[in-house]
Amino acid sequence: MRNDSDILIVGGGLNGPVLALALARAGFGVTVIDSTSRDTRAAPDFDGRSYALALASCRLLRALGLWDKLAPHAEPMLEIKVTDGRAGEGPSPWMLHFDHAEIEEGPMGHMVEDRHLRAALLDAMDASPAITHLAGETVVTQDVAGPRVLLSLASGQQVKGSLLVGADGRGSGTAERAGIGRTGWGYDQTAIVCAVAHEKPHGGIAHQFFMPSGPLAILPLTENRCSIVWSETDSRAAEIMALDDAGFLDALRPAFGSFLGEISLTGARFTYPLGLTLADRFVDDRLALVGDAAHGVHPIAGQGLNAGLRDVAALVDVLTDARRRGEDPGSAAALARYQQWRRFDTASLAVATDLFNRLFSNDNPILRAARDLGIGAVNATPSLRRTFMREAAGLTGDLPRLMRG
Amino acid sequence: MQTATNTIDDAEIAKFEAMAAEWWDLEGKFKPLHMLNPCRLDYITSQIAAEFARDLDASAPFEGLRILDIGCGGGLLCEPMARLGATVVGVDAAPRNIPVAQVHAEQMGLTIDYRVGTAEALAEAGEQFDVVLNMEVVEHVADPLGYLTACQQLLKPGGLHICSTINRNPKSFAMAIVGAEWVMRWLPKGTHEFAKFITPDELFDLLQKAGLDPVDRKGFQFNPISWTWRISDRDLTVNYVTAATKP
C-alpha cells in the first residue's frame, strides 16, 4: 500500500535532509524540495555557521551512517567556560566551568561546520534510492485531498504524498500556506559569525562571554581554529561588519582576549539577525513542522539545531510506529503524538533562551550581581553542573530511539 | 426520476460522510476509542506478526491473511489491517455503521468488505478467516459461550482469535462505569452492564470451552497523567486482551 513518495519534505537545509535520510532508512519513500539550487548549497561559503552538536545529535548522525564522514571535521567539546564579562575589563571572577570528565557519556558534543554537514548530507541523499531531491524548486500551492497532500511546484511539476513536512526555516512558507500563525519578536541583535585561526591550542574548550550588548561564543573547531558567534546590537553589528578584516580583528580582540595568542580570519564573515519565532501549532492537516519552521530560538545556548534534530528523530519514531501498526502516518492521530512530544520541550527552550538573553545581554548592576550569584551557585554545586551538562548534551527527557545510541 | 435518485443518494452520502467524520474525529464522541486504538493495534499487529511469522517493517506484511473484525464500527481496526496488506471483512450488527465505514475506506483509498451481520450468521454461512478480531464485544452479548463458539468456527485451523473486554471487580466498576460513563461521559450511561464483565480466568475458560487454545493475555492500562494507554504484562484489572489459537 506504500506510495513511492510517502513523505514530502520542504526545505533542504540541515533538518530536512536528516529527516529524509532517517525516513528512507525506515523504509519510507521521500521527496525533498529545496528552493536553493544544489550548486549554491554545495559552495563552501554558502553558510559560515558551525554547530555545537549535542551528544544526542551525534548519535542520530551516527545511526544514519554520516558520522564516519563527519568525524575528521568534528572537534570534541571537552569543557565549557561561561564568564560574565564587560569589554575592556576582562572576565568577572565568577565563572561557570563544565568539564566532560564529570559525566560518564564523554564529550558534551562536537563542533562541526555547516559546510561539512551539508556536503555529507547532499552526498548521502544522492546515494539513497528512496530519496528524490528536487533542488532549486519552490512550492506554489499545497492542498490536501483525502489521504493525499498535493504540491504544485514553480516548474509546473506536481508531487503527491501522505504527509508534508515543513523544514523550511524561520519564515516557513509551508506553515504560512497552511495558515499557521507565529508568535515571536526580534532581539535587535545580530550574530556575526566567522572562523578564526589562533596561535595556541584551544584544548577543546568552548568559551561563552556574556557582554552587555550580547554574548560572544568562542567554539573550538578542528586544528587551531575557533568559530566565533558574536552577538551585538543591530547598529553596532553593522558598524563592525563595515570594517575591513584588520579593523574587524581590532574590534574583536578586546572581547576575545589574548588567551589563544594572535588571531586571524580564515574566511568570510557572516551575519544572522536574531529573533524568537514559535509556530502556533506544529501540525495541521497532513502537515508537520520541524526545526526553525516550528521554533527559531536565540543561539545563546547553542541548542537550535539540536532541538530541530530532536524533532526529526521524534517524528521518525512517531511515523515508524504508526506505519508498523497500520495507521495512516499522515493522520491527525499520528501527528498529534508528534506535537505532544515536541511542543512543550521546544516552547520551554524558547522561553529559557529568551530569558537567558534578557538576563545577560544588559549592564544593569542588579541583574549583573544576580546572575553572577547564579553562576557561582551552579558552579559550586556538582549535581547542578552535571544536570546542566546532561541537558546540553541532549540526554534528558524522552529520547527518540535514534538518539539513544 | 434519475435526478431525484441522485439527489437522494447525494444527501445520503453527505450524511454518511458526516458520520464518518464523526467516527474519525479524535476529539469527538469516539475519543475514548481513539485513545485506546494505538495500544490495541500494537497488541493485534504484534500477535499476528508472531503467529504468522510476518515482519512489520516489511511492505504489506499481512498480505495473504484474511481478517475479520467483529463490531467494526467506523473501521478503526479494519483500515489499519487493510493498510498492512490483509484482506479485511468488517461486520457490524448496527446497519447504519456500514455505509459510514464504506465511505471512509473509499476516501482513504482502501478496499474493505463491510457487511451488516453477526459472527453467528457468518459462521453459519461457512466463512473462514486466518484472524478474528473480537474487540470490546463479548461484554455486550447475551450468550458469551455461544458467541465465542461462532468465532472459533470462523477460524481456519491454526487461526488466531484476539479478544479484549473488561474485567469484573470493584476497580473496573469504578473505572469503566463510574469513571467512563458517569464522570467523564466518554460513553453513554448504560453502555456497560457490570454483571456482564468477565474476569480473565473466566474468559480463558470460555475460550477453551469454545474450542480455542488461549496463548496470551495482557492488560490495557490507562495513565491518567499522560492520558495514554499502554500494554501491561501484569495489570489486567480493568481493560485486558487475550490471544487464542484454533488447534
TrEMBL record, chain A:
Its EC number is 1.14.13.-. SUPFAM superfamilies: FAD/NAD(P)-binding domain. Its cofactor is FAD. GO terms for biological process: ubiquinone biosynthetic process. Pathway: Cofactor biosynthesis; ubiquinone biosynthesis. PROSITE patterns: UBIH. InterPro entries: FAD-bd, FAD/NAD-bd_sf, Ubi_Hdrlase_CS, UbiH/COQ6, UbiH/COQ6_monooxygenase. The keyword Oxidoreductase applies. The keyword Ribosomal protein does not apply. Residues 5-340 form the FAD-binding domain. One of its GO terms (molecular function) is oxidoreductase activity, acting on paired donors, with incorporation or reduction of molecular oxygen. Keywords: FAD, Flavoprotein, Monooxygenase, Oxidoreductase. GO terms for cellular component: ubiquinone biosynthesis complex. Belongs to the UbiH/COQ6 family. PANTHER family: UBIQUINONE BIOSYNTHESIS MONOOXYGENASE COQ6, MITOCHONDRIAL. This is 2-octaprenyl-6-methoxyphenol hydroxylase. It comes from Flavimaricola marinus. The gene is ubiH.
Automatic annotation (TrEMBL), chain B:
The keyword Transferase applies. Keywords: Methyltransferase, S-adenosyl-L-methionine, Transferase, Ubiquinone, Ubiquinone biosynthesis. Pathway: Cofactor biosynthesis; ubiquinone biosynthesis. It comes from the Bacteria. Belongs to the methyltransferase superfamily. UbiG/COQ3 family. SUPFAM superfamilies: S-adenosyl-L-methionine-dependent methyltransferases. O-methyltransferase that catalyzes the 2 O-methylation steps in the ubiquinone biosynthetic pathway. Its EC number is 2.1.1.222, 2.1.1.64. Pfam families: Methyltransf_23. It is an enzyme of class 2 (transferase). It catalyses: a 3-demethylubiquinol + S-adenosyl-L-methionine = a ubiquinol + S-adenosyl-L-homocysteine + H(+); a 3-(all-trans-polyprenyl)benzene-1,2-diol + S-adenosyl-L-methionine = a 2-methoxy-6-(all-trans-polyprenyl)phenol + S-adenosyl-L-homocysteine + H(+). It comes from Flavimaricola marinus. GO terms for biological process: methylation. S-adenosyl-L-methionine binds at residues 40, 71, 92, 135. The keyword Methyltransferase applies. One of its GO terms (molecular function) is 3-demethylubiquinol 3-O-methyltransferase activity. This is Ubiquinone biosynthesis O-methyltransferase.
